[in-house]
Design brief:
The chain is mainly alpha-helical. It has helices at 2-9, 32-45, 55-65, 68-78, 88-99, 105-113, 123-134, 143-154, 158-167, 175-195. It folds into two domains: 2-99, no CATH class; 105-195, Non-ribosomal Peptide Synthetase Peptidyl Carrier Protein, Chain A (Orthogonal Bundle), CATH 1.10.1200. α7 (123-134) packs across α8. It comes from Trichuris trichiura (Whipworm).
Amino acid sequence: MCCSHWQQSTSIPHLPSSAFHSKFFEPSSEEWAYYIERFECELAVFGLRDGAATEPARRELLLSKVGKQHFRLLVDHFKPRAIQDVAYDELKAAINANYAPKSSVMVDRVHFSMRFRRKNESVMQFVNALRGLAGKCDFSNALSERLRDQVVIGFNNVTWQQELLRQFPSNAATLQQVEEAASRLELAECQLERLQT
């Protein structure tokens, strides 16, 4: 089995796979990009995130934690090579090729521009949702500006929009400034509601 191969072939202290808490990758409940981010955070906890010396450990942990369906996908994908000979980054790329969402930047940008703040959604939740959508939009250097603009555009509260436009009439406003001002508006609205009840 490949996990016993890792324990024998590396100089890294023995790490039982039970100490590693990442669950199996389940594409119906989590995107691959988020799964691998969580997985690599756990690698970092154990000091296995980088370096040639930890390559076998990263590979074997990924293979042991990715789940039997995805393990089989990887074994079949790399045949006739032995799975133990495949680099960690190659394994990640193979899974990414199968599970990364396939869409165009234009479609992602349309989704981003059509995202409005939902009823009972906090400013922070709204901004985080926009950040998640923007990550697929390839805005490059315009990312902060596009986020800032969509925060203002996406509010479903005309009074808030007017106040933000009054406070920030020029293009010099930063995303952080607009976000902080929107949070103050949200707090003021909540306090006003409490006074009226």
